[in-house]
From TrEMBL:
The keyword Mitochondrion does not apply. It comes from Elysia crispata (lettuce slug). It catalyses: N(4)-{beta-D-GlcNAc-(1->2)-alpha-D-Man-(1->3)-[alpha-D-Man-(1->3)-[alpha-D-Man-(1->6)]-alpha-D-Man-(1->6)]-beta-D-Man-(1->4)-beta-D-GlcNAc-(1->4)-beta-D-GlcNAc}-L-asparaginyl-[protein] + 2 H2O = 2 alpha-D-mannopyranose + an N(4)-{beta-D-GlcNAc-(1->2)-alpha-D-Man-(1->3)-[alpha-D-Man-(1->6)]-beta-D-Man-(1->4)-beta-D-GlcNAc-(1->4)-beta-D-GlcNAc}-L-asparaginyl-[protein]. It comes from the Eukaryota. It is found in: Golgi apparatus membrane. Its main location: Golgi. This is Alpha-mannosidase. Its cofactor is Zn(2+). GO terms for cellular component: Golgi membrane. Pathway: Protein modification; protein glycosylation. Keywords: Disulfide bond, Glycosidase, Golgi apparatus, Hydrolase, Membrane, Metal-binding, Signal-anchor, Transmembrane, Transmembrane helix, Zinc.
Length: 1239
């Protein structure tokens, strides 16, 4: 019967007779009603009565179908033949209803067969087997489609459908107590407190942060010095450092800057330095230098190497860029440093000695740590709050040993020089009076288009004026020297993109050479000057203080803390850039995750290819992709890249480069996953043009579009097929159990794991994100969620099988509730999901095994969270906030945050729609406001995702004017003094405190990954997937900024506002923790995330890869791939506290074409020890804890470790050969770097 009905529908569809289709829809409804009624009656009535009713039913059905076909024939004859397509939605509804009819008819048929069997047994007690055939189930090779018949024993019987099964209840085991941190680590945490002489946190408490006018040195005072301080026997040593600062993107793109400015600088310095061995020059950005190097000939390369050997040319820091230190994650900061250092080492054999960071907008102690562990002994910084500079200068403490605030012994001490004045340009580097210093920038001579803003032009040095000119600038040099402890003064001579031609080199070198000569000829002036580099300056200080490099010079203080937030004048805090261009900040973190994951899996895939001597693995091509991805991420770490402070077209360029790098990294992950799962790896076949066999976990059409998940095609599969494969990859070194999602084109599925066991799945509807509350259901695409269980570094295959409705009792269809009847979306219907519309204002809850969240029925926003394990309810009232900008004088821009007052509520009325989706594996609430689509989700998972609330937003503030938006989470944490903690670069937590004297904008800090409030008994953490600004402006509340749209420039050189906003995703986790032991000190200087917080943050930043089959076959000659169910890349997972930071494949030098992008048989293994707060439990973690030990030879499976060497972080120096099989003790907070040879 159903086959006839389906055929009828298809005929109607070809005739495009909508009227018949509507009639037919009504007919099916009637048929379904009759069938359901008959089923119910048949189960209750006596047997004879049931037979009569069924006979009548089938007769009625036959009559109706006959009449229907006659009507169709008449309609066809009356109409002209027309070809067309029926509306998809109507067909879907008819298909759904037919499926229901089929199901009930099959039930009826089974009942009829049972009745026949009973009748036969009554009428034929002897049991004539030939009269009644029992139902037959076909074997595995005889599987037929529903409704078909099978032959057996010469008799024809209809194959029965299985009875519909009731959904099996989904249950989750209670969280175990979890692992406990070792006693040694807990002891270390309790004693982790810096003993530094200067504590920045204390300095913030004591300083007034006022800004009195200091005269010529506006932010300082009138500087003087005793006339006899320097004599002919005790001379002041002046180190003049010619340098240039080349931004890899800001006003112009990276490429345009190179072609129009940077290339001219690098072309000019070599012949000038060759003129005189006393001339010196310093350069920093390797992204530019490596490009220039690739274009010059061998002769010029040798000349450059000679200048380096002579000490005339220095490359400072040697990173790919001069990295931002507020928004950048420490992985990316280190990776761009490795990229630059490895290029220098393999190409020039050069190792940088000194750090030079003059332009980032505030400084993190994380960078000092990374340089220290990269074998640097000294570094320089510039952009620090003017009040802090003034205080340190007054006390001659501008040079100090920068110590990590968790280091009680000083093992991390880094000799740091802080420049004292407003800027790093020539007017602000020779001394405290910029009007005088500008007169000695000889590029600004009257014949030049560049002039001094103080309207006093420089004068070329001649024999007639050299005495006056030399004494004038010497006075500035001596005044500057009084701010430091030694008789050596550093005088940088440069600025952005300086020395673009031979002319400027000539002007600066020749005029200063005359001044130096005059000083030498007049020793009574007590000074001698020379051209030098940064390392020359530090060497002179070490020599004068008789200190071995790396040790502490005499009387130098130690200092702990960071230098955020930066203000250059008045209340102009550079705290806006923490949030500017959040879409690109999001893309940065996504690229970082994909790059790290690709690095690890490529290194291990390459090792297996070497071991099996495989020629079919595309090593060189993969290495080229990897290098492109590395350099895209490295370039964006530039302090005008990730900061969001470049012009629109430059941001566009960064975005395109990152998107290309993201595609390359994803391709590596997809290809290596398939390669590793191949049972016979010789059958693996890489085809660049065909795309990967397994799709990317998500795609982006452009750099400024929202990510989209690919759709796994199961609809056209046979129910009896083997299922559509999905590959999961866990790039973390610890086991993970968490809910993952795959999009399919069919709702009724069965998910099986690598062991073949069926898993519970939850099917949810999808809506178009870009249409907000007005978007109807996406038809034919569904989100299928299931709990995946993967050990550390595992590549695992799951299968998604097509089922019919109700066929799999582990397949759960979500329920949808829509609140707010005024929304046009409430009228939508679905043949799959039950959608209920309500107009209630009562609060409602979502609940899992572990958490219960209460939401406002009016606003849909979170109100409280209850931990069901201990019954503690945590206040968690969430609101959205907004700021405008000042009405007068300076206004907010890309850099500055200058609000128009306290935060105001962003939303005052009820949202246009509250959408609730519930299911056994998880439930969520989505609300739609004017600018924010906000979702809170609870995962009913035994993993870390089940211990926290998942928050995701789509923020779109286009169309607004001077608007900054964020969220404020009100908690019941008692931080009465408003102390809280935010992270520095995802590496460490820094203590913060609200001070009204700093103004509102001065109390905003960077939050790359997390922030938390805590008291003696509890902690509330906000974990973030991307960087943004954070504050604690109200007691017990955390503010997190989302986006900012600003209509004007803030006068810091960009020359535009921020108006290129796009719909922007962001994701957070809220973690509520109760201490199992109360603590006395609730605001220690050194604080650490809990073990659960550490692992939850890693899981958020590094989600599992979910790669659906894309349809292509990667076997040789297009043969079907024979993939294993699972590949384990580790012998055993690492302990909870040990984070596999990277396994970076090393490449041969690209100097020769033969070795270009050829992998070496070595990788850089980076493992970090993550200490944790021991007063919190670690429920839901399945990893085990250790004592900070790691054995490189015992980490990776199926590869042989031939050699391992402990090195500096960037491999510029080998520290110790490691005997194979030897475990290394990694102290808490430290990163272990080991160069390993794998095969």
């Amino acid at each position: 019967m159903c086959l006839i009905l389906r055929g009828t529908v298809e005929i109607f569809a070809t005739k495009n007779s909508l009227s018949i289709l509507r009639w037919f829809e009504t007919y099916i409804d009637l048929l379904y009603h009759i069938s359901s009624t008959a089923t119910a009656v048949a189960l209750k009535e006596p047997m004879v009565s049931t037979m009569k009713r069924l006979t009548l039913l089938w007769g009625a059905l036959l009559f109706m179908v006959t009449m229907l076909m006659l009507y169709m024939m008449l309609d066809t004859m009356a109409m002209s033949p027309r070809q067309g397509k029926m509306d998809t939605e109507v067909m879907n509804m008819l298909e759904s209803k037919l499926s229901k009819v089929e199901k009930d008819m099959n039930n009826n048929r089974l009942i009829v067969q049972q009745i026949k069997a009973e009748m036969g047994s009554l009428l034929n007690p002897a049991g004539d087997a030939q009269q009644v055939q029992p139902p037959v189930v076909a074997g595995a090779d005889d599987v037929k489609k529903p409704g078909e018949i099978v032959q057996m024993n010469q008799a024809v019987v209809e194959k029965p459908m299985p009875k519909p099964r009731v959904e099996e209840a989904y249950s989750v085991a209670a969280h175990s107590k979890g692992p406990e941190t070792s006693a040694d680590v807990c002891k270390w945490v309790s004693e982790a407190k810096s003993t530094a002489d200067i504590n920045i946190h204390n300095l913030f408490s004591s300083l007034a942060f006022d800004n009195p006018n200091g005269g010529a040195w506006t932010q300082g005072w009138k500087v003087s010095y005793p006339k006899d301080r320097w004599t002919a026997d005790k001379k002041l040593k002046i180190i003049l450092v010619p340098h240039t600062h080349c931004d890899p993107g800001w006003i112009k793109t990276y490429e345009v800057y190179y072609r129009t400015e940077t290339k001219h600088i690098l072309d000019s310095f070599v012949p000038k330095l060759e003129e005189n061995s006393k001339y010196k020059f310093m350069f920093t950005e390797m992204s530019y230098f490596s490009w220039w190097w690739s274009e010059i000939d061998d002769s010029l390369r040798e000349r450059v190497k000679k200048l380096i050997r002579n000490g005339q040319f220095e490359i400072s820091t040697g990173g790919w860029v001069m990295t931002d230190e507020a928004n950048a994650h420490y992985y990316a900061m280190l990776d761009q440093l490795i990229e630059g250092h490895q290029w220098l080492n393999s190409t020039l054999g050069y190792v940088p000695k000194s750090g030079w960071s003059i332009d980032p907008f505030g400084y993190s102690s994380t960078m000092a740590y990374l340089l220290k562990r990269s074998n640097f002994n000294s570094m320089l910084i510039q952009r620090v709050h003017y009040s802090i500079k003034k205080h340190l200068a007054k006390n001659t403490e501008l040079e100090f040993m920068w110590r990590q605030h968790w280091d009680p012994k000083g093992s991390t001490d880094m000799y740091t020089h802080m420049m004292p004045f407003y800027s790093y340009d020539v007017p602000h580097t020779c001394g405290p009076e910029p009007a005088i210093c500008c007169q000695f920038d000889f590029r600004r001579l009257p014949s030049s288009p560049y002039r001094c803003p103080w309207h006093i032009d420089p004068k070329a040095i001649t024999s007639l004026n050299v005495a006056e000119r030399a004494r004038t600038i010497l006075d500035q040099w001596k005044k500057k020297a009084t701010l430091y402890k030694t008789n050596v003064v550093l005088v940088p001579l440069g600025d952005d993109f300086r020395y673009q031609g031979r002319e400027e080199f000539d002007l600066q070198f020749e005029n200063y050479e005359k001044i130096f000569r005059y000083l030498d000829e007049n020793p009574e002036l007590g000074a001698q000057g020379k051209f030098g580099t940064l390392s020359d300056y530090f060497a002179a200080v070490y020599e004068e203080t008789k200190t071995k490099p790396g040790r502490t010079p005499t009387d130098f203080p130690s200092l702990s803390g960071d230098f955020f937030s930066y203000a250059d004048r008045d209340d102009h805090y550079w705290s806006g850039y923490y949030t500017s261009r959040p879409l690109q900040k999001n893309l940065d973190r996504v690229l970082e995750h994909n790059l790290r994951s690709a690095e690890i899996i490529l290194s291990l895939s390459q090792a297996r290819a070497w071991r099996e001597k495989l020629a079919n693995f595309p090593s060189r091509l993969m290495a080229r992709k990897m290098e492109g991805s590395r350099r895209a991420l490295a370039l964006f770490q530039h302090h005008d890249g990730i900061t969001g402070t470049a012009k629109d077209h430059v941001v566009e360029d960064y975005g395109k480069r990152m998107l290309d790098g993201l595609h390359e990294a994803k391709r590596i992950v997809a290809e290596c996953s398939a390669f590793l799962l191949h049972e016979d790896k010789k059958m693996y076949n890489y085809l660049e043009s065909d795309g990967p066999e397994y799709g990317h976990d998500e795609t982006r059409q452009s750099h400024n579009s929202l990510p989209e998940k690919p759709v796994l095609r199961v609809k056209d599969m046979l129910v009896s097929s083997g299922g559509a494969p999905v590959i999961l990859y866990n790039s973390l070194a610890q086991p993970r159990v968490e809910v993952v999602s795959v999009h399919t084109d069919w709702p009724y599925v069965k998910v099986t794991g690598p062991d073949g066991v069926s898993l519970h799945s939850q099917v949810e509807p999808l809506w178009p994100v870009e249409k907000g509350p007005d978007g109807g259901l996406i038809l034919g695409v569904y989100s299928v969620k299931f709990v995946a269980n993967l050990t550390g570094l595992a590549v695992t295959k799951y299968l998604v099988h097509k089922m019919e409705s109700g066929q799999d009792n582990l397949n759960h269809i979500s329920q949808v509730t829509l609140l707010n009847k005024n929304s046009p979306a409430v009228d939508e219907k679905s043949p799959v999901f039950q959608i209920e519309t309500k107009s209630e204002d009562a609060d409602f809850t979502l609940e899992t095994k572990f958490l219960k969240a209460t939401f406002s029925g009016i606003t849909g926003r979170l109100k409280s969270v209850t931990s069901l394990s201990d019954g503690v309810t945590h206040k968690s009232e969430l609101e959205f906030i907004q700021y405008g900008t000042r009405a007068h004088k300076d206004k907010s821009g890309a850099y500055l945050f200058l609000p128009d007052g306290e935060a105001r509520p962003l939303v005052t009325d009820r949202p246009s729609l509250i959408r609730i989706v519930k299911g056994p594996l998880g439930s969520e609430v989505t609300i739609f406001t004017a600018y924010i689509q906000h979702t809170v989700r609870l995962h009913n998972s035994p993993g870390t995702d089940g211990s926290s609330l998942d928050i995701s937003n789509i923020v779109d503030i286009r169309g607004s004017r001077n608007l900054e938006v964020g969220m404020r989470l009100h908690t019941d944490v008692k931080n009465s003094d408003q102390t809280f903690y935010s992270d520095l670069n995802g590496f460490q937590m820094q203590r913060r405190k609200y001070y009204s004297k700093l103004t509102l904008q001065g109390n905003v800090y960077p939050m790359p990954t997390m922030a938390y409030l805590q008291d003696e008994s509890s902690r509330v953490s906000v974990l973030s997937s991307q960087s943004s600004g954070v504050a604690n402006l109200v007691k017990g509340a955390i503010d997190v900024m989302f986006d900012r749209r600003l209509n004007q420039d803030d006068n810091r050189g960009l020359g535009q506002g921020v108006l290129d906003n796009r719909p922007t995703p962001s994701r957070y986790r809220l973690l509520f923790e109760t201490r199992h032991t109360k603590v006395q000190e609730t605001a220690p200087e050194a604080s650490f995330p809990s073990l659960l917080g550490q692992q939850s943050s890693l899981a958020l930043i590094h989600p599992m890869f979910v790669m659906p089959h894309a349809g292509r076959k990667s076997g040789a000659q297009g043969q079907k791939s024979n993939l294993m169910n699972q590949v384990l890349l580790m012998k055993s997972p690492l302990p909870c506290e040990m984070h596999l930071l990277n396994l970076r494949l090393l490449l041969h030098s690209s100097v020769t074409a033969e070795l270009d992008h050829i992998p070496r048989e070595s990788s850089l293994l980076l493992v970090r020890h993550l200490p944790s707060d021991c007063s919190f439990p670690a429920a839901s973690l399945t990893c085990t804890t250790g004592n900070g030990q790691v054995n490189p030879a015992d980490i990776f499976a199926d590869v042989e470790l031939r050699r391992s060497t402990i090195t500096s972080l960037t491999m510029t120096s080998d520290l110790a050969e490691l005997k194979l099989g030897t475990a290394v003790q990694v102290p808490p907070m430290e990163i272990l770097a080991v160069k390993v040879e794998l095969s």
